Amino acid sequence: MTAVARQTAAEHSAITRARLDTLLRIPSVSTIPAHADDVRRAAGWLADWMAEMGMTRADLHEAPGRLPLVYGEWLGAGQNAPTVLIYTHYDVQPAEKSDGWNTEPFEPTEINGKLYGRGAVDSKCHVVIQLAAIEAMLKNGGSPVNLKMLCEGEEESGSEHIYEFVANNPDLLKADVCVISDGSLPNESQPVLDYGLRGIVSFEIHVRGPKRDLHSGHYGGSVHNPIQALSEIIAQLHAPDGSVSVPGFYDQVELITDEEREVLLPMRAPFDEEWRDVTGAPAPWGESQYSLHERISVRPTLELNGIYGGYIGQGVKTVLPAAAVAKLSCRLVPYQTPDHVWECVSTHIKAITPPSVTVEVIRMEAGAEALIIDRTSPALKAVTIAYERGWGVKPLLSREGGSIPVTAEFKKYLGAQLVMMPFGYKNGGAHSINENCDLGMVDKGIQTMLHFYEVLSSES
Amino acid sequence: MTAVARQTAAEHSAITRARLDTLLRIPSVSTIPAHADDVRRAAGWLADWMAEMGMTRADLHEAPGRLPLVYGEWLGAGQNAPTVLIYTHYDVQPAEKSDGWNTEPFEPTEINGKLYGRGAVDSKCHVVIQLAAIEAMLKNGGSPVNLKMLCEGEEESGSEHIYEFVANNPDLLKADVCVISDGSLPNESQPVLDYGLRGIVSFEIHVRGPKRDLHSGHYGGSVHNPIQALSEIIAQLHAPDGSVSVPGFYDQVELITDEEREVLLPMRAPFDEEWRDVTGAPAPWGESQYSLHERISVRPTLELNGIYGGYIGQGVKTVLPAAAVAKLSCRLVPYQTPDHVWECVSTHIKAITPPSVTVEVIRMEAGAEALIIDRTSPALKAVTIAYERGWGVKPLLSREGGSIPVTAEFKKYLGAQLVMMPFGYKNGGAHSINENCDLGMVDKGIQTMLHFYEVLSSES
Hints:
Two copies of one chain form a homodimer.
Chain A: H1 2-11, H2 13-24, H3 36-53, E1 57-61, E2 69-74, E3 83-89, E4 109-111, E5 114-116, H4 120-138, E6 146-152, H5 162-168, H6 170-173, E7 177-180, E8 184-185, E9 192-194, E10 196-197, E11 199-208, E12 214-215, H7 216-219, H8 226-235, H9 258-279, H10 292-297, E13 301-310, E14 319-320, E15 323-332, H11 338-352, E16 358-363, E17 371-372, H12 378-391, E18 396-398, H13 407-414, E19 417-420, E20 424-425, E21 436-438, H14 439-459
Parallel strand pairs in A: 3-6, 3-7, 7-19, 8-20, 9-18
Antiparallel strand pairs in A: 1-2, 2-6, 4-5, 5-21, 10-17, 11-15, 11-16, 12-14, 13-15
């Protein structure tokens, strides 16, 4: 059944590209409240497509203060066939052309086989790949597995509400395998399958000094400058060896074993090369007893995401500002909890703040624990075969540095085997300027999903 | 002659207030190129007023890339009378209501005897006081001293061009006494006369890491975050005792003598009180072996005026940014030179920047040396008497923490006795939000100027 679906999908490549174009034009930015209606518009578009292709459910799950979850299903494979729950998200990070984009972020533009636009790689290509694969099967008599699809609209803004939805709807979402379809391969040609994700928790530090901005001549030298005080706090969050110097931060961290180090060894050289190509940074940085790949996969971090204070316009303004703010996030590894890390970081920051300023540390999200998938599970084996067939290359195994907050909830409430099937690529500019997806990878992604369903159903 | 002028000025109080209102409505922001025409409009308005009141010259001095200097003169007092050159500036710092103003910054609003608007205290009240005093004399037969007035349009943006103008026009500007009319008294009732000013030089630090913004999950832990690196640099610019820890920074600094410490002693308690009222900071900060007043007057500083990097919008964006920028300025004391301080600071910053990022230190202005006025000069004595008559209170002597860059040039090229006659007040929010001047002080300022001319002419 899926062989003919693969043929249909290949023939419909231009239609799929047009679907992606349409979805990318909707600025479904979940982190900015003013875009809430755009997020809802994207959700409606998804549900319409699900219904149109013949999925038997295509529902928007909304509640006050929440952006919609889109749930679709097709259970025509019968009770003996396995059920697959696919998770992805249709919301995106903010983007303005003035950030440095070469094209308008919400006017998709194709250049050399890449489609540029905010959300192209994170994660609207996944939304379209998954639905196009399902559509190709439903056009040809149906799928060999039962299908459930859950598309989130708040992945970029903390995933606050999907937790409750998953906890409250275990029967609706019940599945044998849960496919997390988000994230990236290192490049277009070599698939790498992740069996781990880092968790995350985010904060803001607000340092306040004088009650209002002061003239730096009139009071400079007698008042602790909040920018300076904030910088002094930030400078105390890492040790010279690149480790996080927050007491208790590493308490819950599982150290990497020699066996796992061996599994990840093939990733070192490719990641070193990727690192040089993608970052262009003058020199590596971080914990020198770990390889660059280990630093971003098996080690937790404390990262500065933004800072502002005082005059940030053109030219000179000799102000001594009233306040300065930094935005931080920690990437977590097994078995760190967001609560523990929040507690350690906020306590430490308060402890090192001098009496000449005041500090407020604000937790920005519930956060998410890291994820580890059993490397021997049948579902991961099916994924491996599917990628090998879709790409024509044997995949490597790795752990991913990014976070997909909801994975821990799926594991906890659904009891399904979790696997990750990413079809983005790292040069795709996720969370950055000039975000893009590779249109060839979109086609391969659809083929890979169809192989996956075929392998999974034949195994069961 | 000035007694009747004082009477006229008192009667014209409402007209003076209306003049100030008109001038405050012109957003003559010299630090933002888009406001260049507004600066020119303010200059034209000043020259028109000078001509209208009967000054015999009222010229705009313009050149490519420069904002106009307005020069007016009236030399009718005769060759035997002293000549006074008055300096002030009509340009202002940037301001937006969204910065936290209660009123529109360029729509002057009177509340409880204060007039709110950007530039009210720094320094448009001085422009209006000086011209209103001259007008009152010219309406009553003339002034007992010859008058030259130079109004600058680039004081807030580095005063780059007035240096050349002063150097090239010593004959035009030649005077016996040069009055710097800018700055503030600590409050409405107690005049304090400054015999010193701090100098200034400004920089920007640009720290760059990866070639573009990165996803903090994909690369966090392996790349030195530019916000963190910049914070680590900033944290190394001060020692724990509050002193500047840049090698060579204090090389040229003249230490305060016991004699001068005695002169400044009466300022300690009032400044401590002012400090508490105005700053509202949780605790004092700085070099503990100096009083708060000494820290802002006889000691040099290195101050952070602004910082930005990464995502500074609402909510969370997990970016590892490509760059971070800080704006700094140093306040200088005798006999520090801007060149030496620039050299020390930029060399030190480059020396402490780790190889994992790159740094660029940009000098933002030529800068200005500090100024010290001989406390025994006849001109300073005339100023003291004038304030005592204008305010009805004996003035205290002090040194000012702010900078008036052009003073060093006046001293160098004109050979005139320099004095400072400020009519702002420190609660006036210079360089901050809700800037305002006290309308009672504007009237007293005009009276004080008229007393000054009277004393000066009777002494000569």
